[in-house]
Amino acid sequence: MRNGIFYKPSINDLEAQIFGIVTKSTPQKNTGILTTCTRREWAILKNKLEQISSTNGSLLKLIQNAAFVVNLDQAGDDSPIEQFLHGGKFATNRWFDCTLQLIINDDGDFGICYEHSVCEGIPVVQLAAEIKRAIIQNPTKEKYYYGNSPLEPLSFRTSHELDLLVSRQIENHRVQQERLDLNVFKFEKFGKTFIKKQNMSPDAFLQVALQCAYHRIYCRLPCSYESGSIRRFRDGRVDNIRASTIPALQLCRHLSEFYSRGDCKSSLSTNSMDYLRKAVRFQTSITQQAITGKGLDNHLLALLNTLKEVSLPIPELFTDNSFKTFNHFELSTSQIPTISRDIYMCYGPVVPDGYGCSYNPQKDCIVFCISSYKDCDATSSERFRRALAESLETLMDICNQFNSKRSNSADKEDIRKDVFGKTPRRVRCNSQVDDLDQLALETRRSTFKRAQTEDKFRL
């Protein structure tokens, strides 16, 4: 896809045809912008395209049956991550009604845009890692051999009504792009290696840190979402791991007492590590429950849809305002690990007053992609980034103080070993020794008598 026009190149003459697509000057077609409409609107517009011409129906079928779409962009001034996420000024060179779009521009920036309802993010970033590895292992050739296979452009036929809708949707999508506030944050003071040394799960630790960051801003925990895979079950997809727990709230309230004092590092108490361990262990526990089919969300959703299908009365549980709050995810998160810190995935918030936050834990750093909406005064990606950095540093201080006290105790034990030659054992007084000897003697006598009795029964 180039300048909004589709091509179907031949594998046998791929280099020559891609070169021809990139160098050939073609007029811009903006039909692809219609795929940025809502699903219902796009379904109506798709039917209109099919009714205009049979050629449109054949092209739609060709796109639908394709494994992926390759988007060849021109060089631009937009941030590559935003260009890959929503298209930027090249949004007309996108077709969002497909599973996978492989995007590359004239500057050599490469990215992937995929439709989330088909699969999770981990297989997609693994695909990106494989492509990057192949590019590094097979550097660009100095010379290309061009063929002569003909390549015809494929574009949709439109009507005056659709052209007006295209112009309107270009402006609507531009407004949506400007709403998004995206912040890529690399925390480099520690990574998953440090967390594992604390005998904690990196995912649970970071989920607790996200809760602390949100509480630091709003003095409450959010309704949060973390996708947990249930692929181990037949037809399984994901369930929700809810990180807004009572132990996490207790930790946040414990830390808020020290935030107000200014010097939080010197004010941390000796039981701060206990609060942290309880929150992380509980988060690990509910993660195991969710990925083993014991989560709440899928069961409630199945029950609600079943009641609707059989036309039974809907219980008050599903009509109460608390259930709406229960599903208003102010913090949408997911761990998307990769082998490289330069590969990461981002997405937007799922509610107008919420945050989207993916995280990629590396050995020595953690990469976060934080998003929010600029037109919401209650949220700010930069403010959440600062709160997250401060929360991570605070949790690091808790672990370091605990490790320092533990190492001091170990040093004292080593000193005792040096003085006494070995660790001194606790010595009892003479009366205790006599009592123990008497108890041992009576035990031996009772054992001997029992053995004699058993021998008599055998005879």
Automatic annotation (TrEMBL):
Does the keyword field hold tRNA-binding? no
Keyword Cell division tagged: no
EC number assigned by the record: 2.3.1.6
Indicate the segments forming the Choline/carnitine acyltransferase domain, all copies.
11-389
Query: What reaction does this catalyse?
Result: choline + acetyl-CoA = acetylcholine + CoA
List UniProt keywords, sorted A-Z. Acyltransferase, Neurotransmitter biosynthesis, Transferase
- What is the enzyme's class at the highest EC level? transferase
The record's comment on protein family reads:
Belongs to the carnitine/choline acetyltransferase family.
What job does the chain carry out? Answer: Catalyzes the reversible synthesis of acetylcholine (ACh) from acetyl CoA and choline at cholinergic synapses.
Listed name of the protein: Choline O-acetyltransferase
Q: Which organism is it from?
A: Oikopleura dioica
Lineage, please?
Answer: Eukaryota, Metazoa, Chordata, Tunicata, Appendicularia
